[in-house]
Amino acid sequence: MLLEGKVVAVTGGSRGIGRAVALACAREGADVVLNFLVSGAADGSANPGQEVIDAIRGMGRRAIAAEGDVADPATGTAIVTGAVEAFGKLDVLVSNAGICPFHTFLDMPLDIMRRTVEVNLFGTFYVVQAAANQMVRQGRGGSIIGVSSVSALVGGAQQTHYTPTKAGIHSLMQSCAIALGPYGIRCNSVLPGTIGTDINKEDLSDPAKREYFSKRIPLGRLGEPDDLGGPVVFLASDMAQYVNGAALLVDGGLFVNLQ
Ligand code: NAP
Predict the structure, then answer these.
(1) What mean pLDDT is reported for the chain?
(2) Which tens digit of pLDDT belongs to each residue from 145-161?
(3) Does pTM surpass 0.85?
């Protein structure tokens, strides 16, 4: 129980990596504030965010939803207010919400570029700033984890709008490690490799691409959302009490395999 008694907020927690991270934190004893964007499918079918909340409650932990667009600064405030009202505090923030609408560079519509930066980079900034102010008020330190990407370190022809945001998150966590270290707030990033989720479902539906990645990744398989659970729990926990400003690759060895 590495996170017993801790309150963890996860943005983009209804699906993919955020969902897996939220469940992993709850399994380690945390109560969870779950942010996501939609409040249910238009056809009235199940709300994936609510399913995650129900699963966490099923483990005997407490969980609340803090729905909202992270590109709106008010969402960061609402996440913090929700944590304080429901659980009295916020110990850990996992800023995970992100989008990657694959597109070629030469004809990139500016609204796609703008939205990607607003959600991924501004969104992270807003939520991190709101959480950090609460942690400073509490006076007991904390842990902030930015979900960056291996794309912070390499380019992508269809991701010219996305890779700068992921490099930005990596850099933001480094600067925040310095700005917030004196308050005992540790700031780190995780850099996932290629993880099979909705964000890249269409891209990875190409068998040639799947085969390329499987061959290129030394561990021999694409990543799964659960692969992020352990690394994030570690960074969130007191096991990582002296880890600040780090960037943890979680990519099966993809980045170092330059062949
Ligand atoms: P995903 O399956 O598409 O899930 C994205 C999550 O973010 C969903 O919960 C979604 O909520 C939420 N979200 C999207 N826009 C939002 C907004 N404006 N405000 C609040 N929540 C929002 O994607 P994923 O693969 O798990 O990606 C999660 C993070 O990991 C992203 O930051 C991504 O860049 C990063 N990452 C992913 C990979 C990969 O290979 N999958 C690799 C490196 C980094 P709704 O369900 O409500 O839409």
Answers:
(1) 96
(2) 999 999 999 999 999 99
(3) yes
Mutate to test the pocket of ligand 1, among 99, 153, 190 (most ligand atoms within 8 A of CB): 99
214-242: average pLDDT: 97
Pocket perturbation via mutation, ligand 1, pick of 69, 169, 199 by most ligand atoms within 8 A of CB: 199
Query: What integer is the mean pLDDT of 31-56?
Result: 85
Distance from Cα 75 to the centre of ligand 1, integer Å: 16
Query: What topology does CATH give the domain 7-250?
Result: Rossmann fold (3.40.50)
- Active-site hit among 149, 151, 189, 237: 149
Active site residue 201: no
Query: What is each CA distance from 98 to 44, 62, 165, 229, in whole angstroms?
Result: 24, 25, 10, 17
166 is catalytic: yes
pLDDT score at 161: 98
Cβ 12 under 6 angstroms from ligand 1: yes
